[in-house]
Known about the structure:
Blueprint: E1 11-17, H1 28-38, E2 41-48, H2 61-74, E3 78-81, H3 87-97, E4 100-102, H4 104-115, H5 119-133, H6 160-195, E5 200-205, H7 211-219, E6 236-242, E7 246-252, H8 262-267, H9 269-276, E8 280-286, H10 292-305, E9 313-318, E10 329-332, E11 338-342, H11 351-362, E12 366-373, H12 378-386, E13 390-395, E14 401-408, H13 409-417
Parallel strand pairs: 1-2, 1-3, 3-4, 5-7, 5-8, 8-9, 9-11
Antiparallel strand pairs: 6-7, 10-11, 12-14, 13-14
Helix pairs in contact: 1-4, 4-5, 5-6, 6-9
Amino acid sequence: MFFERHGGGERAILVHLDGQDPEAREDPQEFQELALSAGAETVAFVSVPRHRPTAKYLVGSGKVEELRDLVKAEQVDLVIFNHILTPSQERNLERVFECRVIDRTGLILDIFAQRARTHEGKLQVELAQLEHMSTRLVRGWTHLERQKGGIGLRGPGETQLETDRRLLRVRLRQIKARLEKVRSQREQARRGRKRADIPSVSLVGYTNAGKSTLFNAVTASDVFAADQLFATLDPTLRRLELDDLGPIVLADTVGFIRHLPHKLVEAFRATLEESSNSDLLLHVIDAHEPERMAQIEQVMVVLGEIGAQDLPILEVYNKLDLLEGVEPQIQRDPDGKPQRVWLSARDGQGLDLLKQAIAELLGEDLFVGTLRLPQRFARLRAQFFQLNAVQKEDHDDEGVSLLAVRLPRAELNRLVSREGMQPSEFIEQHTLQ
């Protein structure tokens, strides 16, 4: 028989495994920040120098007894492991501690559940939670006997656990269907933006790198921004006007983290696709973070999982105000293309450089110039206006339209080719005859 599960609480003991494998090792400071973001009151932080995890408890039996005594002495409600626990390890530890035990995945899921604000965000979190829970349903149940017989009590002959699993499968199907609808709506919106030739730019980066602060500073928005992990879950899109380029759509997205649970990546695929379908990614990096190189690697891993690793990327080194002797600047590659921008989103230093770099990268295939269109090209003139590509119009003495236009070269070529013309006949103020 399993114990009756205790109610939730926020007094917690944090257990960190300090192994030798650098790939599996987690950051203890980041672990404490995660617990703080979840609202836990850390009573004790226990570091376990365990190099070979055990199958039953993950840690050795002696350490389990030590932790049990600490749980009782401190009267805590929760023990959090900075590691992935199997369902059986979680159950075994709960039997010994007689309190709730969650692992790193459960902790991150809890933070996501607290942060989700929109209907879509809540659905995505619930999907990840239910898929995580599906392997752990047996935990904590005291009524696994078959449903009782008798008038009004006869059931279908399945255990309570089987009933719960069946109901969970039904709910999972419902959520996935709703998220698929959200996904198709997002795809439709993206197609609309592409038809209007409005480039999309997404902010990506490690959690708490300052993406939302940068987003607010650039777009004059008021998206929630805080010095905590996963402050932003729900994607926000804003229109931004750039000099010499025109309008773009800037998207603020969820932050990444080391060993981001795969269930979360799957659940948030509709949101993350906003990044994978962008014309440019702004990889926001905490310039003051000592572990920033490891964080950069983790971001690239997640980008690979969502198929966005080959998109153009502009690195944005943020929090310049915390560094000494570093000025806002654009660093370029050997071809002169912007590669890295140093700025401070909080102080506003370097924001103009960021806009300049974005305009340069997105404007590579942009035509900016004046076209001379005789009156017989009135239909072509109307199409330029329809695309919002005309910045200014004048007329010469002969009544010829002088259109100052800004639009992608591919679009310009497409429009003019319909008139049976060649690019060389109109680019750079050539006259269409």
